[in-house]
Amino acid sequence: MKKPFYHYITIGIVLLYLLIPLLGTFQYSFATSWHKTILPEGFTIKWYVELFGDLRFLKSLGRSLVMSLGATILTLVIMVPAIFSIVLYAPKLEKMIQSLIVMTYAMPGIILAVGLIRAYSTSGISMVLITIGAYFVGILPYMYQGTRNSLRNINAESLMEAAEILGASRYTAFQKVIVPNIISGILVSSLLSFSILFGEFVLINLLVGGHFETVQIYLFQKLSQSGHIASAIVVCYFLLISILSAIMIKMTRKKKEPV
Amino acid sequence: MSFLTIENIKKSFDNETVLHSLNLSIKEGEFITLLGPSGCGKSTLLRTIAGLIHQDEGKIHIDGKDVTEVKPKDRQVGMVFQSYALFPNMTVQENIEFGLKMKKLDKETVKQNAAKIVELVELTGKEKSYPRELSGGQQQRVALARSLVTRPKVLLLDEPLSALDAQIRKNLQKQLRSIQQELNMTTILVTHDQEEAMAVSDYVYIMNKGQIAQSGTPHEIYTRPVNEFVARFIGNYNVLTREEVSNLFKGEKNFKNKMYAIRPEAFSEDRILDGYEISGKIQKTSMLGNITRFELEANHVSFIADRLHKIDEDAQKQETKTLYLNRKDVIPLS
């Protein structure tokens, strides 16, 4: 079937609309100065040199990584076995998980932040830990969906039964049979969760703000100082997310193809 | 001396009784079939024997040991699932070795046992394949090998062949039976296919609504159904009421039971001494491969009669047919 040409035009316009800001940011991060011309007057890598020379940036990058990775791994370790047990052995509890998940969507970030501050600011618990806790809840939907779908795909119930009858304990069966078969699905949800958390700004800014500078807060502050550096940060961030997305796409494809 | 006994097993789900005080006993090396329509409780019974479902009441003994409260992993039973349930992350070899590794046997023993069983189920050369690369029949043989390799005391088969096409199913039935006999493996097969049950088992239990409707050798079950359910379930029996039977065999008055069953192939075209004689109008003739089936009407009673297919079939032209029947082939049902 031949597609009419206006399909291509529409897609072209949408693509341009999406790509121009990125392209602009990309060029701006390499531009010496860019004021009255259509294209930048010259190109330089000095903004990147400056950015990576800034200890504050590297530290904030480290903090972002620790926060996002920490919350993701925590969710992984606690929620995957929990969802597995609920889906297989206590399906009645699944409704509770589902309502928990809906609640995470019903709660706007700003209300969540204010609520958390009011509840915990005087408790003496570090607000960084509180934020990780909030992240944990925030990425629940992705982890839940990913894990549950993977379990359904492999028909986990009969695999467990088969393994148990062959003499495996439930723990061994989970570890040797279930985990290897759902790992790619779980990794995809983890990567997704990680990239969402890595870009999170509202909660971290309100809850801990300047005390604990993450990449997003650093970017926010740089925005008022130098557009070039801010652009360079965005480009780096974008690159990281692209790499993560590429890995995700590759992993989901691999699952479908016969080896 | 029975090898596996089931005493008074009861099970209900959400106030609905699935198994009503079932009793069963199986000798060592016997191949028995639980046959019944879907929802009759046959799979529930099988899963209870495996320990995957816990019964509400009753006891299960295997090889003289009370296993009622034993976990599935320690029951020493093998099970083949309808969905095969092969481990997709493992090769054929690894799937088969899984049970042996769980027993913590040494590497050499694991290898030898696996190799033997691979040969037995004719999967040589496929050891390194993954389950998804195999055909349905091959996958089923892997599932069988995986269950057999640990030498379970009882092998449980939950409709293992129902997802396969007719040709492969027939071949696997034969293979299954010969492997079972070679290993002298006590086996319980669950199926809803009466032909399959007849073809492979030593003994058949027909189940209906959580109870055993009839048990016996395939021959007994087929030739002497005891009630209407069995007669309707195991073949194409003519199931007739007392009035219909009296009408069909005019002059006969001594029918006392409510229902009677007549096998369609029991009708004969040759005269039978001291038998019944019926002349019926042919309503419809159908060719079912090796047999020809006539739908007839006599004295306002419809019935079917089968005859081996003849090459010079002239039945289409005939309008009436005179058939003979042995008296003992009119089976009273309870």
UniProtKB/TrEMBL annotation, chain A:
Location(s), subcellular: Cell inner membrane; Cell membrane
Pfam family, one: BPD_transp_1
PROSITE patterns: ABC_TM1
GO cellular component: plasma membrane
GO biological process, one term: transmembrane transport
Spans traversing the lipid bilayer: 7-30, 65-88, 100-119, 125-144, 182-208, 228-249
Residues in ABC transmembrane type-1 domain copies: 61-248
Signal peptide annotation: none
InterPro entries for this protein: MetI-like (IPR000515), MetI-like_sf (IPR035906)
Entries under SUPFAM superfamilies matching the protein: MetI-like
Membrane topology reported for the UniProt record: Multi-pass membrane protein
Source domain of life: Bacteria
Keywords: Cell inner membrane, Cell membrane, Membrane, Transmembrane, Transmembrane helix, Transport
Similarity annotation: Belongs to the binding-protein-dependent transport system permease family.
Entry protein name: ABC transporter permease
Organism (species): Neobacillus vireti LMG 21834
UniProtKB/TrEMBL annotation, chain B:
GO molecular function, one term: ABC-type quaternary ammonium compound transporting activity
PROSITE patterns assigned to the protein according to its UniProt record, in alphabetical order: ABC_TRANSPORTER_1, ABC_TRANSPORTER_2
Reactions catalysed, as given in the entry: a quaternary ammonium(out) + ATP + H2O = a quaternary ammonium(in) + ADP + phosphate + H(+)
Broad class of enzyme this protein falls into: translocase
Official protein name in the record: Carnitine transport ATP-binding protein OpuCA
Enzyme Commission number(s) from the entry: 7.6.2.9
Organism ancestry: Bacteria, Bacillati, Bacillota, Bacilli, Bacillales
Keywords for the protein's UniProt record, in alphabetical order: ATP-binding, Nucleotide-binding, Transport
Segments forming domain ABC transporter: 4-234
UniProt cross-references to InterPro entries, sorted A to Z: AAA+_ATPase (IPR003593), ABC_SmlMolc_Importer (IPR050093), ABC_transporter-like_ATP-bd (IPR003439), ABC_transporter-like_CS (IPR017871), P-loop_NTPase (IPR027417)
Oligomer and partners: The complex is composed of two ATP-binding proteins (OpuCA), two transmembrane proteins (OpuCB and OpuCD) and a solute-binding protein (OpuCC).
